[in-house]
Fold this protein.
Amino acid sequence: MSGRPVVSGRALLLALVGLAAALLAAPARADVYLQVGGASQAAPEIALAVPPFIAGAPYNAESAKAAKNVEDVVIDDLLFSRYFKLMQDGAPWTGSNLAAAVADWKTRGAAWLLTAQATAVESEVSVVVQLADTQSGTVEFSRVYRQQAPYERSLAHKISDDVIRDLTGKKGIAESEIAFANDSTGHKEIYLMDYDGANLRRMTWDRSICLLPRFSPDKSLLVFTSYRDGNPDLFGINLATGRREVVSDSQGLNVAGGFSPDGTKLLLTMSRERTPSIYMKNLANGKLTRLTENFGTDSSPTFSPDGAQVAFVSDVSGNPEIYLMDTTTLSATRITSLAWCDSPAWSPTGAWIAFSGRANMGDNLDIYLVDVTGTQVRRLTHGEGANEDPRWSADGRFIVFSSTRNGRSQIFMMDADGSAPHVVSDIPGNSITPAWSN
């Protein structure tokens, strides 16, 4: 277990402000129960038959291995979604017995039958997938998925999300990714992993302080703050090409808040040798607009799903609290009254805002929800270590956050109602400031 101290989000921001200043100076309310729709409150499960995926012709060991690997990931994705009652004991899929398989699975109570046949040829894996309605016998879809062999997990996640969308009409999260900072190398670097904790990839080698990553809505760009060049500058990595670019390098603090829904604007916390304030940057022309100008510190901005409002943290009233700002008039309204608030994150529906906070100054940081009127608050965690930096899944059913409940900071996930918290992946070192892609 790491002996490094784990610092709370807002304390980390204040420390960054202080460190930036030092570098620049050097030469050169009571809880109200709120019903929230988590995964545990989903509609009745859909009976889905999933016989073992098979290898396509001509049969070879690599095709059989690919079929098993893809099947394992798809099963895990569908189970995690909690939309389905999966059935696997019944008629096998041979590649040519669809009518007989449908009839058998219908008698066993399955509403749908999912079959898949994988073929591995050189470095490419292709999977033929069929989804059949057992009541009518019709095929809902028949699709071919292709991917380079090293990336067959992403192919499997795509299959899962397509099945979820077709059978529920809802967006799946299997293709989403989680970015975060981790200090296992002795420095804070940025990493990516799949939503289920697999496929861990290191994204930076700055040998410095990197933290607070944020995804663009289309997941093409990952921005983060790095001290690589001595100042807390904001960088972006093109996730398709790996190319890195400077997004903002003004003197002082440059920290990403959130992208606008259309991805054309980015909210930032910038100090520019003054008190940290909220700015908005037009990513097409680089125009910078200052949104707040208070005596206190303003930070952690995030757009509402419709882009009409910004949630942010300000200590202008004394304690750091959550405020909502109209993006047209720039008028702001306070919606919390706790001892400490930080890291607001808007739910995909726009109805709720998750944040980390403490009701009393001596409390551990916990994850809370507040509605946009500020009249309803729900506490999701209850002092199990320090719980910080909540971020929503794209379907609004889950929240990812960091927690020290196991003695070091790790990335956790829970249902949106606070139930079923679990470690996403047991990664060495401290993992902090998660972000969750669409």
Observations:
- The first helix runs from residue 9 to 25.
- DSSP finds four helices and 30 strands in the chain.
- Helices lie at 9-25, 61-81, 98-107, 152-168.
